[in-house]
Amino acid sequence: MLVAGSPCAPARLEDHRGCVSRRGGQETRIKVPRELAKSPSAFIPLGEIPREGAKSSLRRLLLEAFGWSGRVDHVAMVMGLHPEYLSSFWKTQYLLLRMDGPLPYHKRHYIAIMAAARHQCSYLVGLHMGEFLQVGGNPAWLQGLHCAPQKLRNLNEINKLLAHRPWLVTKEHIEALLKPGEDSWSLAELVQALVLLTHYHSLASFIFGCGIKPEEDQDGGNDQDGGNGCWTPSPHSGSSPASEDSMGGSGGKDAMQEVEMLMEKMKLLQENQLEEEGVTQEEMETRFELEKTENLLVPPSDILDPSLQSNVRCFVEDPEFGYKDFTRRGEQAPPTFRAQDYTWEDHGFSLINRLYPDVGQLLDEKFQVVYNLTYNTIAMHCGVDTSMLRRAIWNYVHCVFGIRYDDYDYGEVNQLLERNLKIYIKTVACYPEKTTKQIYTQFWRHFKHSEKVHINLLLLEARMQAALLYALRAVTRYMT
């Protein structure tokens, strides 16, 4: 997990209440809270969040997080519903922020601030403002993007595109950043910056998608409008998918029917796959184009954007720029990104590993862990092969960003992902700041919260991989 012997490595555990951290040769006792008083999520009841003592492996992970940052933050608590993924996530984030790399530490945190601000995620903006100062960053830069060095400001355009319309990134954007001059980027620096930008855009999706609340020690506490806290999506109805108030009466029966219908559809699709001789490439392409067109009918949440908080607004230029449907009626659409032409496995992975050693391996592990993560359960059913459903979610996220898999039948997306789930996925992936508790509770009403968090992990990683593929393809085109 964390590197043994590093000043940020986790300390040995003394008891349930504390651990000892060794920093600069000195021992500091850190208090580890026994129990949360409130849920770290506005969407998930406290009883659904794993306690630190629930599993030794999870407890170890949370203490490692504590040893790194002096706190077990709410993101780690919610991700702790899936310890295998949390382990992979922490290794990657630790390498990006704390280990040797082309960029100095304070610039890494500033890039995280820039990325989070694009989605109005003041939870992350506030967190990394503190980290930026802790590693010696210039406080003047925190007055806004206009006070940062020109080299960092030059990242603004590619940050904006990767956050909202990654298909617009071209080799010319890469060329402009690498052009020789006082403020030029090296290729290694730029690759690290691209990974950081996509990491934090996607993490903002997870934070909004799971309704992560700010820690109480952050300025502004749990106030939606104050301080460094994340704007918490407004709770509209229902406290949890499986709670009595949301499952009472006919709603509970309808939710049960949704589960049974999904199980039946999966069974029929699996049987058809065994019987079909194969669908032609032309038919596959037609089904993808149909799915892209139907994606236009999936509206964003109609909740109005909250006014940008001052600590976020100052890091955003062109705040009106946002996600725009990849295919729009009456407009010339960009060419579809055929996944087989530039794959993560054959192209992106090797390019990152060459220019930023180790991070490619960790990213690949993280993608694999979440894509293959399964407990073989769906709601109250056990012993279920969920691979078809996981692939449909992953490929739908890529579809809304214009990426097509030639060997995938997009008819499965329409079969397996009901409309409320599509609305949720598209909102969280494309404009996460519009996520509400209402759209969280309206899909998969009889599923466990841990299953909904699993969807958010798939969203996080599918979104990050999609943006990285566009960025790395542009880098490859620049290099060739």
Work out the helicity level.
40-55%
Please mark out the parts with pLDDT under 50 across 5 or more consecutive residues, or reply none.
1-35, 219-250
- One letter per element, helices H and strands E, the order comes to EEEHHHHHHHHHHHHHEHHEEHEHHHH
Count of β-strands: 7
Strand content: under 5%
Report the biggest beta sheet as strand number plus sense, adding barrel if it closes: 3 strands, antiparallel
CA-based shape: globular
Computed over alpha carbons, the radius of gyration is 22 Å
Mean pLDDT: 81
**Class from helix and strand fractions:** mainly alpha
Distance between the termini: 37 Å
Count of runs of 4 or more consecutive helical residues: 20
Strand order of the largest sheet: 1-2-3
Characteristic terms for this protein:
480 residues; mainly alpha; two-stranded parallel ribbon; disordered N terminus
Q: What does this 3D model show about the protein?
A:
- This protein has 480 residues and is mostly helical.
- The protein contains 20 helices and 7 strands.
- It has helices spanning 56-69, 74-79, 83-98, 105-118, 122-134, 150-153, 156-164, 171-178, 187-209, 244-247, 250-275, 281-295, 310-313, 344-355, 359-372, 387-400, 411-416, 419-430, 437-442, 449-479; strands spanning 13-15, 18-23, 26-31, 337-338, 377-378, 381-382, 403-404.
- The strands form 3 sheets. The protein has a 3-stranded antiparallel sheet, with no helix packed on it.
- A hairpin with a 2-residue loop joins strand 1 and strand 2.
- Helix 14 packs antiparallel against helix 15 (359-372).
- The longest helix has 31 residues, at 449-479.
- It is globular.
- It starts with 12 loop residues before the first strand and ends with a helix.
- The model is unreliable at 1-35 and 219-250 (pLDDT under 50).
